[in-house]
Design the sequence.
């Protein structure tokens, strides 16, 4: 018996040396999600759910293999309250929890990136398209999967200027509005004749009648309103209530359910509102996005907008920002696998070298010169009718895209 | 009696010819190329490519070679301009020993950069221009440049020698062919060559066996080389030659004077003109009507010319065109540059499971050692 025990131990060790199929469990890998749960609940929820869905999928497939170990992904939620100071606290707590990455809407990124960069921890923005938030040279740990303000502004310029419109460039005085206004200003700078008026609107003001009257007097034939959803709703209210049926264009906030909720009593006021966003479907067709959407909805239910179409059908919101968060989780896992270790520096480097298939069928990834996961070319325009939207037909990219169902 | 004998011989020849089986042999071109490179390849695997149906890429490259005082490459940069035509999505990568990439002038999109890859992704609304300035690592790229430049000073004299470095051995073939068919094929090949078109696929009829000569045929991409050798305070010595296409594969020029010589030259793949010029007629069909040319000579000329056109086409893409069927054009500019400190060359490291492999190896070695020890312990217990 004494001879048998060492022999069995040796065989077991030999088997351990030769085998590769059984990976030792390495424990948990934490992905921190820092979003405005109490400031912008829809955005917060959709980002968190996107990351969680990816984590659940990967965990149910046996976890994430990193080097010789298998890990379980866990998602830790932090509420930044739309406050930069809170985002800084959240980042510190996430680093203490050994998060391998932080997914954020973008709140406080100007302050948080340096804290995370000291530990070489990547941060991915999945909502805010602000120019300057992502800079490969200065902020090597900041990535983004969301349309950029720069891309949207220039796409708007190439879409609106050839129409011969006199555009009123309006923005609110929120950080979001001011950042967008800067990009729009640059995009239209070479065609000043296309601009009828530039105007700053007070964020949070519900009555914008004086400003809209002024815009009308400037002979604007279109309004591009870069603002938070309440301001866009207020612009529509002010314009339509005086019978001014001017076409209104908006950044991605134009698709926010808040606007439709606010104007639920006047659905025709929403008709014609056009917004820019990242395309939801790739050229391969609607299949991949609908598969993702179906999985998202079967896990979390549909994101109800809270309004109905004329024939009484409830309207729901396609999970665009969830898709971006979901895609980042997959790119991160690809980077972990490539790095073969949890070494933050290696993971950060690997993020520049991997590509995965995104939820919409497009390739998703970053590279050494570009940390933007949504290229400017992928910005499309959609127009509302009867509380739902579909891609416009007078833009080369948008005209190729199918409408995504938004009612049962 | 004499007439009968001639008739018998003629009949015998006809019968023999009939007995020889006819076979169609594919002529060189448009592919494969005589060598794998160019276009250059990088380490690693390119990501999956997507080009929407109806989308085409045309590539125009300026390969700028900085040469040192002896003519050796000291820097290689490619300015690649891609013209996308058609409406739809594209996601492509261009591989090579790439050191760095920057957006080129006039580009409507930003190139991505990964290890040995330039990435392009976006949507073409019908036509789109993409441009990138791509710095290449010299050791893996320089051997595939089409020219070798040798610059020497001997006292008061500076000599510049330029050599066509595209010579490659190819497998040729010989056999019985018909002069009229060869003339027709030579004329068609000549028309393509003069029009600057990529050589079209073609075949020739052989009667009887097809032989492969023991010695491979040496072919080259004909190169048009223009430029100058300049010495301070002196008139530049200019040159404009075609290297190849039946002409010498190198030339040497000399200049007298002191100071640092400066070389500036531009080379581009040239059509085959000389070797496809019909003797004493405007076409090969007319030439063989004027005087008899052995069909074997015509075949040899045809194969040689087509291989040269293929080789010239190969050098139209120093870096790959993402669209395998796309039109490619390359020019190579050589210019003396100030001496620089040699760049550090990054040795490619295998990605992925290197750590795993090492760990596995250690585990195996460790296990064997423990097993050995265990067996000894067991034997002595």
Sequence:
């Amino acid at each position: 018996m004494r001879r048998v025990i060492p022999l069995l131990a040796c065989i077991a060790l030999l088997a351990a040396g030769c085998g590769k199929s059984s990976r030792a469990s390495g424990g948990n890998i934490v992905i921190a999600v820092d979003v405005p749960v109490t400031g912008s609940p829809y955005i917060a929820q959709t980002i968190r759910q996107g990351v969680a869905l990816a984590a659940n999928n990967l965990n149910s497939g046996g976890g994430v293999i990193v080097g010789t170990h298998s890990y379980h992904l866990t998602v830790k939620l932090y509420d930044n309250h739309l406050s930069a100071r809170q985002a800084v606290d959240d980042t510190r707590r996430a680093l203490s929890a050994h998060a391998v990455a932080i997914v954020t809407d973008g709140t406080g990124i100007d302050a948080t990136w340096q804290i995370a960069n000291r530990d070489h921890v990547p941060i991915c923005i999945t909502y805010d398209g602000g120019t300057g938030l992502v800079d490969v040279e200065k902020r090597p740990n900041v990535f983004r999967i969301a349309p950029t303000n720069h891309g949207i502004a220039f796409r708007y310029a190439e879409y609106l200027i050839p129409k011969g419109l006199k555009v009123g460039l309006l923005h609110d005085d929120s950080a979001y509005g001011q950042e967008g206004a800067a990009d729009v200003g640059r995009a239209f700078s070479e065609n000043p004749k296309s601009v009828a008026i530039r105007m700053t609107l007070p964020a949070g003001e519900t009555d914008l009648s004086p400003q809209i009257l002024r815009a009308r007097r400037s002979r604007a034939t279109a309004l591009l309103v870069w603002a938070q959803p309440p301001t866009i709703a207020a612009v529509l209210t002010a314009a339509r209530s005086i019978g001014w049926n001017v076409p209104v264009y908006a950044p991605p906030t134009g698709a926010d359910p808040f606007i439709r909720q606010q104007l639920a009593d006047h659905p025709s006021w929403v008709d014609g509102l056009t917004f820019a966003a990242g395309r939801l479907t790739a050229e391969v067709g609607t299949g991949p996005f609908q598969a993702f959407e179906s999985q998202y909805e079967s896990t979390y239910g549909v994101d109800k907008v809270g309004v109905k179409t004329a024939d009484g059908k409830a309207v729901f919101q396609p999970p665009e920002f969830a898709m971006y968060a979901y895609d980042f989780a997959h790119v991160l896992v690809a980077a972990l696998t490539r790095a073969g270790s949890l070494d933050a520096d290696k993971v950060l480097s690997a993020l520049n070298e991997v590509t995965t298939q995104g939820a919409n069928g497009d390739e998703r990834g970053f590279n050494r010169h570009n940390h933007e996961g949504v290229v400017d070319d992928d910005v499309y325009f959609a127009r509302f009718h009867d509380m739902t939207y579909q891609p416009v037909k007078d833009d080369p990219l948008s005209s190729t895209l199918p409408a995504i169902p938004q009612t049962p | 009696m004499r007439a009968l004998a001639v008739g018998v011989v003629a009949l015998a020849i006809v019968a023999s010819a009939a007995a020889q089986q006819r076979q169609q042999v594919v002529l060189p071109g448009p592919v494969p190329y005589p060598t794998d490179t160019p276009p250059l390849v990088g380490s690693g695997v390119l990501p999956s490519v997507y080009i929407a149906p109806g989308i085409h890429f045309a590539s125009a490259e300026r390969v700028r070679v900085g040469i040192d005082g002896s003519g050796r490459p000291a820097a290689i940069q490619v300015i690649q301009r891609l013209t996308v035509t058609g409406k739809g999505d594209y996601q492509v990568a261009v591989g090579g020993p790439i050191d760095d990439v920057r957006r080129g002038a006039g580009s409507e999109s930003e190139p991505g950069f990964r290890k040995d890859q330039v990435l392009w992704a976006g949507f073409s609304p019908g036509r789109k221009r993409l441009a990138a300035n791509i710095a290449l690592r010299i050791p893996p790229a320089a051997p595939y440049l089409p020219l070798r430049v040798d610059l020497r000073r001997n006292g008061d004299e500076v000599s510049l020698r330029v050599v066509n470095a595209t010579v490659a051995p190819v497998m040729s073939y010989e056999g019985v062919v018909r002069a009229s068919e060869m003339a027709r094929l030579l004329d068609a090949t000549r028309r393509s060559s003069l029009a600057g078109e990529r050589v079209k696929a073609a075949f020739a009829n052989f009667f009887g066996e097809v032989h492969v000569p023991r010695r491979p045929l040496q072919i080259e991409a004909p190169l048009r080389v223009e430029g100058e050798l300049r010495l301070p305070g002196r008139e530049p010595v200019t040159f404009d030659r075609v290297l190849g296409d039946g002409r010498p594969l190198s030339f040497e020029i000399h200049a007298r004077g002191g100071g640092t010589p400066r070389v500036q030259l531009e080379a581009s793949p040239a059509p085959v003109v000389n070797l496809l010029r019909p003797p004493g007629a405007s076409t090969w069909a007319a030439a063989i009507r004027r005087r008899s040319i052995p069909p074997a000579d015509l075949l040899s000329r045809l194969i040689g010319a087509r291989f040269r056109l293929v080789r010239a086409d190969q050098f139209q893409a120093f870096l790959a065109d993402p669209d395998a069927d796309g039109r490619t054009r390359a020019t190579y500019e050589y210019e003396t540059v100030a001496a620089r400190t040699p760049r550090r060359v990054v040795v490619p490291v295998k990605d992925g499971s290197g750590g795993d492999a090492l760990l596995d190896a250690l585990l195996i070695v460790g296990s064997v050692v423990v097993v050995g020890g265990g067996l000894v312990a067991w034997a002595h217990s």
User: Anything to note?
Assistant: Chain B is about 25% helix and 40% strand. The first helix of chain B runs from residue 2 to 19. The interface with chain A takes residues 47-48, 50, 52, 87-89, 91, 101, 109-115, 119, 121-123, 125-126, 351-356, 359-360, 363-368, 370-371, 374-375, 377-378, 381 of chain B (CB under 8 Å). Residues 147-314 of chain B form one domain.
